[in-house]
């Protein structure tokens, strides 16, 4: 049985929006270093997810994530 695993697709949305990582960090009220850590975390708070959805103007939480394959 294959387990589905997802991660934040922040880089994809940064590219689509032409926003820099520093600008996103500023809008999230965090340092760019903390944003880098966030991008690699296994868990993310709903508050951060909601803020990212608002910043990137997404309609659903699913748009913020991408499925990855764990080998």
From TrEMBL:
Keywords: DNA-binding. Pfam families: HTH_26. The keyword DNA-binding applies. Residues 10-66 form the HTH cro/C1-type domain. GO terms for molecular function: DNA binding. InterPro entries: Cro/C1-type_HTH, Lambda_DNA-bd_dom_sf. This is Cro/C1-type HTH DNA-binding domain-containing protein. It comes from Fictibacillus solisalsi.
């Amino acid at each position: 049985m294959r387990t589905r695993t997802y991660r934040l697709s922040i880089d994809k949305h940064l590219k689509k929006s032409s926003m820099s990582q520093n600008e996103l960090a500023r809008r999230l009220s965090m340092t760019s270093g903390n944003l880098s850590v966030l991008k690699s975390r296994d868990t993310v708070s709903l508050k951060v997810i909601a803020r990212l959805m608002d910043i990137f103007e997404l309609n659903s939480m699913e748009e913020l994530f991408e499925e990855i394959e764990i080998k």
